[in-house]
Amino acid sequence: RQCHKSYCHLGMVGRGVAWVSVLVLSVWLAVGVSAGCDPISPQKERCSNNGVYQFDVDTCACFDCFYGDKCESENKTCTVLATVADGYIFQQYFEDRWDDPELQVLVPAWYRPEYQDPYVIPPFVNPLNMRIQGTLAGLHKYANNANTTDKALVVADGSTQTIRALLASIAKKEGKPMNVYARPPFYPVFKDWASENPMWSQFTNSTKLDPSTVIEIVTYPNNPDGKKYEPVYKDAKYKIYDMVYYWPHLTTVDAPLNEDIMVFSSSKLTGLASSRFGWAYVSDPALAFGTISFLFRETFGASADTVHRQLAVLRSIQSPTSTFFEYSRDTLAKRWHELEAVFAMQATPAQYTLTSPFGWWFGWIQCVTPVQGKSCQDVFVDNGIQGEYGDGETGVEGYVRLNLNLRESSWRILVGRLKTMFAN
Q1: In contact, 242 and 163? CB cutoff 8 Å
Q2: Packing angle between helix 127-143 and helix 304-317, nearest 10 degrees?
Q3: Nearest-angstrom CA–CA distance, 403 and 364
Q4: How many other CB atoms sit within 10 Å of the CB of residue 179?
């Protein structure tokens, strides 16, 4: 059951006209369906504060190392997962505001069942696309992280899907396969996608190629290490700026970037990774149209349900009363203070070094003293911590990435594991 205000939001998103909202709300109230209607509570106590109650299947999804019908028991010898970049701190924020009417989202069966126009502006200018464009432009102005003026907007089912489509669209536009370069340490998926179809592109480690044959992916700030790098190929014909982490709760936003291709994602901004939603601003309208054409052939783009949920959340976090960015930044800062204190417990010389900047989503940790026959990732697994990208797949050896954006229960276990590891 959801509040009737969800329908008001639905009318605004679906049509972009205020009177439709009033009409839908009036009909809804007239039939009396809204009586006794409540927002859905996360019911934290039902899962002992160690899990999330999933009302659609009537069960608790327990956090790492907890089990039982109510997540009431802890496995003291389990391995805590600090791998996938899920934004659990953001989930905590939205749970705490579960009764906020601006965050109530309901998508009834009759809502937009037909195939939708591609989400690319221009040329597809319709009320929903204009609502998307206005929400995203307002968000970037609020965050002061990107100049969106005079650029086409492409919306897709995720930023990684968008980058893949851009690689294919560029190759088609150029009429030849392109070399794709990313500075190490890089997000390993870039290498996978750049190499999946030799008719489009191939991944390269070389820094001495003809720039006219190069697409450089510049992740800003970089995943996994959180640093801000300038392009290696300054004259590359195409530079794709992956800016999914360039938000004020994850890094210092020095100034709005104004690049020819800029890619963003809701999964890193708000943690809503299950509702696939990414977007790109592209200076070349032909390239933008080629990108959405590829996406449309592959998946038909983001679903109308996803767009409705995402727009409600994205409008909410840029409202004058929202504390989303402050809450997220402060929570990560507290964890970093604690993390630095734990790393300082090591005997001198330290065997493990935090190399990522303060407040970053991940701990990018260097294993200073190699262990015979083990990767840096293996060493942490031996101590009950499962990290990621510790086997050289980012283009560098001797490091491991830990996700710090965990639920509080999992974070406490991770800190405990690190203390035991360093004490030994």
Answers
A1: yes
A2: 30
A3: 9
A4: 19
What residues pair up with 400 in beta bridges, in sequence order? 365
Q: What is the pLDDT of residues 1-53, one digit of tens each?
A: 344 343 344 433 333 333 333 323 332 322 233 333 467 777 778 999 999 99
SS3 category, 66: strand
Radius of gyration (Cα) for the chain, nearest Å? 23
Tokens of 173: 């536009």
Please report the beta strands in 101-259, taking only residues with DSSP state E, as ranges in sequence order.
120-121, 152-156, 178-181, 201-203, 214-219, 238-242
Specify the pLDDT at position 191.
Answer: 93
Q: Encode burial over 181-192: b for 16+ CB neighbours within 10 A, e otherwise.
A: bbbebbbbebbe
Dump the DSSP string for 388-424: BS-SSTTS-SSEEEEE----HHHHHHHHHHHHHHHH-
CA distance linking residue 183 with residue 357, whole number of Å: 18
Global pTM value? 0.89
Q: Tens of pLDDT along 177-233?
A: 999 999 999 999 999 889 888 888 999 999 999 999 999 999 999 999 999 999 999
* 303, 110 Cβ separation under 8 angstroms: no
Q: Are strands 120-121 and 362-367 parallel, antiparallel or unpaired?
A: unpaired
Contact between 365 and 399 (Cβ < 8 Å):
yes
Q: How far is CA 423 from CA 189, 272, 287, 416, 420, in A?
A: 35, 37, 55, 11, 5
Q: Is the pLDDT of residue 247 over 60?
A: yes
> What is the average per-residue pLDDT within 101-118?
80
